[in-house]
Amino acid sequence: MRIEYDRDVCIGMFQCVAEWDAFEEDTDAGKAVLQDSEAVEDDLFAREVPEDAELDAKFAARACPVDAITVYDDDGEQLIP
């Protein structure tokens, strides 16, 4: 499973932080940070999700009020949102 996070879309509500500890608050920027991610393009970050964190990653994506987080299965099919 892979997760993508669009930092440009993020509005800093930090619901993702409450759902998965891979997200942290960047209060200076007013946006979340996806730890251990790589930049895919400007403000778009991605990382693999460990098997034991898949449910938390899905909850983080569902909790985002602006759909800045997308989850893909191992075949690249979009699961959330």
Q: Would you summarize the structure shown here?
A:
Helices cover 19% and strands 36% of the residues.
Write a structural description.
GO terms for molecular function: iron-sulfur cluster binding; metal ion binding. This protein has helices at 15-19, 54-63; strands at 2-6, 23-26, 31-34, 38-41, 44-48, 69-72, 78-80. With 81 residues, the chain is an alpha+beta fold. It has a single domain (2-80), classed as Alpha-Beta Plaits, CATH 3.30.70.20. The strands form 2 sheets. A 5-stranded antiparallel β-sheet has the order 4-5-1-6-7, with helices on one face.
Would you spell out the secondary-structure blueprint of this structure?
Layout: E1 2-6, H1 15-19, E2 23-26, E3 31-34, E4 38-41, E5 44-48, H2 54-63, E6 69-72, E7 78-80
Antiparallel strand pairs: 1-5, 1-6, 2-3, 4-5, 6-7
CATH class categorisation = Alpha Beta
SSE order, one letter for each helix or strand:
EHEEEEHEE
Helix content: 10-25%
CATH architecture: 2-Layer Sandwich
Radius of gyration: 11 Å
Number of helical segments with 4 or more residues:
2
- Outline the biggest β-sheet: 5 strands, antiparallel
**CATH fold title:** Alpha-Beta Plaits
Straight-line N-to-C gap: 14 Å
What proportion strand?
A: 35-45%
The count of β-strands is: 7
What structural class do helix, strand and pairing data support? Answer: alpha+beta
Q: Uncertain spans, ≥5 residues at pLDDT below 50?
A: none
Task: Write out key terms for the chains shown.
electron transport; Alpha-Beta Plaits; globular; about 80 residues; five-stranded antiparallel sheet; 2 helices; single chain; alpha+beta
